[in-house]
Give the backbone structure.
Amino acid sequence: MSVTVAKYSRVARILHWSMGVLIIANLAGGLLHDLNADLIMPLHKATGVLLLALAVLRILWRMVKPAPAFPAAMSLGERGVASFTHAILYAFMVLIPLSGWIMVSAFPRPLPFYGLFELPKFNIVKDSALWGVAAEGHELMAFALIALLLLHIAAALRHHFVLKDGILARMWG
Ligand code: HEM
Ligand code: HEM
């Protein structure tokens, strides 16, 4: 049985899927950068900064247009896990690119935005406490994001194929 449910707004859906593709590409680029760092890293950094801007827009939009209510059949526990996971995903969408930006600010290399213009840098010294937290944190949070995304995707598939409660349709189309 399929159920009709309220949808996310069109803006939220476009942001979710376009950012989803770019985030997965950036995770892959970060992990595989040794293949061709000169090609991959400038794209990784520019796309990361673009994602940071999109994340800020998305969070502001989320405040203007809140998510549709959970389906009535979802238990309090399931709602709690979903809300908690989404909150951490939002936090990572900001903190991962921000930590990367802080990390590379200490390097002499310029920070071009797809060859269009140069991005500014934070005033940060390599090996300072904040730099260390950003450099360590970037990698740790990226790995934690991969684990959370696997959970997130598994939950979406469970809702679609097992519970059939229309959750995927709220974010699709
Ligand atoms: C193939 C990959 C993905 C699938 C199948 C998927 C699926 C979904 C679905 C079905 C929802 C709606 C949940 C609901 O109605 O409550 C959702 C929400 C959400 N997704 Fe994804 N997603 C994917 C990738 C991502 C990625 C890469 C991110 C970001 C790191 C992400 C972050 C979120 C967040 C934060 C929400 C909550 C939206 C809100 O309530 O404000 N998703 N996702
Ligand atoms: C959502 C955005 C981003 C994601 C998901 C992401 C993900 C990753 C991942 C998975 C790695 C590999 C970690 C490792 O194995 O050591 C990495 C490395 C790195 N990232 Fe990002 N990143 C993002 C944004 C950024 C931004 C905005 C910058 C800089 C402006 C940046 C700069 C770097 C640097 C310098 C490395 C280290 C490469 C090396 O080990 O030499 N990242 N990133």
The pocket of protoporphyrin IX containing FE (ligand 1) is lined by residues 16, 20, 23-24, 62, 67, 82, 86, 89-90, 93, 149, 152-153, 156, 167-168, 170-171 (CB under 6 Å). The CA atoms of residues 29 and 157 lie 25 Å apart.
